[in-house]
Amino acid sequence: MERKGIIAAGNMLVDHVHQVVDWPERGWLAEITHSERATGGAPLNVLLTLAKMHTGLPLQAVGLIGEDNDGDYIMAMLDQYHVNRQRVERTSFAPTSMSQVMTDPSGQRTFFHSPGANRLLDLPAFERLDDSLKIFHLGYLLLLDSLDMPDASFGTRGARLLAQMRDRGFKTSLDLVSRKGDPRYQPLVRPALCHLDYLVINELEAGEFSGLEMRDSQDTPDLANIAQAAARLLAAGVNERLVIHCPEGAWGQESGQEGRWIPSWRLSQSEIIGSVGAGDAFCAGFLYGCHESRPLEESILLAHACARASLLAANAIDGAKTLPELQQFIDEHRQGLSGAVAVQHIG
């Protein structure tokens, strides 16, 4: 029987987003004018985006949350969008991971993050997954303390997990957390690469892994360096598809093939309502394209359309569109991407 469906696992959290009248000096008070709550983290953002696309695919969440109100909220959101939550476990040893997000009048956001239960998510949580599903997506390495621990055979426990998922017949996918100057990119990411079918990361993460500058002196994407970073990641073990995305576009490459730069649809700064979760929305579109065996370029175009829709809403989920709406947008605006050209593989 053909496998069908997507599992997304890893960081689950709640964002408490507040608008403040100004950013105060230390020790002083600032008034909060508006507050809202939203789900966050790779698994929830990817799965809820896919659910709102109305793809009809079976969707399953895997994670660890606390026995608290934020945990109740996550469970309710998964139920609302008909995502299987049987493998979302709850613990009394730590609260649900959360972020307090302060947004000043300029739109600048400051994050106060509590890792909570995500630190405790470990290998036993993945033993009873539904093997009829097709893709297993994990996010984010470098922010899952137990899975980032060393492993004598695989390098890290996260790499062991991905190897186990591939042995069980899943196509495996990975996303990373963006942390500038974190020395763990090489030791924690490299062991996982040879157990991956798909790697979807942004320019910051690619730059941290490769040590290359992803932007030139004019602050535009340096395609030569992006291509070189992609070649290094593929050489380190990514088996099928790799994507490095940034606001201006995405570099896509398949193992043994030339890379390709696919520009995105541009938005003015005034059109962008919120950027939180846009990378996860991109990932959701790309994974759907991979699931349906769409060509690489078509998968990236769908990913761009999902990210664009996400940018038009304040949180990671509200902007998500149905698959027919996304496809209609792509078909009507494809000619605006005439700059998409094949670029010779640079190794």
Automatic annotation (TrEMBL):
Keywords, A to Z, come to: Kinase, Transferase
Q: Per its UniProt record, what InterPro entries does this chain match?
A: PfkB_dom, Ribokinase-like
- Point out the signal peptide segment: none
Q: Where is the Carbohydrate kinase PfkB domain?
A: 10-320
Question: What parts of the sequence cross the membrane?
Answer: none
**Which molecular function term from Gene Ontology is one that the record holds?**
kinase activity
Protein name per its UniProtKB record: Carbohydrate kinase family protein
- Classification lineage: Bacteria, Pseudomonadati, Pseudomonadota, Gammaproteobacteria, Enterobacterales
